[in-house]
Amino acid sequence: MTAVILDGIVLGLQFGLLGVGMTLVYGLGGVLNLAHGSMAVVGAIVVANAMAAGAPVLVAVGAGLLAVGALGLVLDSTLMRAVYRLHGESRVLLSLLLTLGVAFIIDGLLVWRYPIGSLGIHISGDPIEILGVRMRIGSLVASAISVVTGAALVAFFRLTTAGRAVRSVIQDEVGARLCGINPAAVRSLIFGLSGMLAALVAITKSMTAPITTTAGIDFTILALIVTVVGGLGSVAGAFLAGILLGIVNTVSSFYIGTYITSIMLLAAAALTILLRPSGLLGRRA
Fold this sequence. Notes:
The protein has one domain. 74% of the residues lie in helices and 4% in strands. It contains 12 helices and 4 strands. Helix 2 packs across helix 10.
């Protein structure tokens, strides 16, 4: 049982990081990005191609992160401009339609251009024993990257001027504008950062299992579930929900079977909506 829970925590940290990118975009602009998972796969394929071309792993990872960050900035400066002109439910609905279309285009291009493309990063080394369980080096490295990234995000939002500007826009966009903060620039920053976080999740996930060109929809569904359970707009809630859902995922897979795992995750999201519509750490309306 200990091994199952530890595997769940490893997976949950990646879930949390995946949800953070989506919840930040929603908290800032009221936009649900259904291309989030597809952007993650773009990063994975860029890394795989760079490594195939002979680039060192770190250089390839950097190229993948920058490519997806640039893709996020392009989307924000083009399609999202029409979305930001709307308000309320109209903004959410248009963002769903446009980003879903982007996801279809990205997935179609990836499957057409790289039908058997995948990313798998092998981390060599002997397993390390933790709480009596021998953990693979790849799992530990992926977890360490997720934890460090999460700590860096907390420090960014609490200690930097840009991070405080992001928090101000999330809490009160009108008030932030009166204080001299440009909400459009903040949204662009976060859209790019969200794409990089998605790509980082795909890269860390590839240390334990290959990432294929068809994984985008799975990433998007997981991000949505984590975001709903954690609370829209809550970074801490996304990490908490990610860890809890990661444990649910591994326990369900181990004792019931992988075929029922998605149903269990969706049931957890539905139960959260019924008992606490704002999510675990979301702000009550």
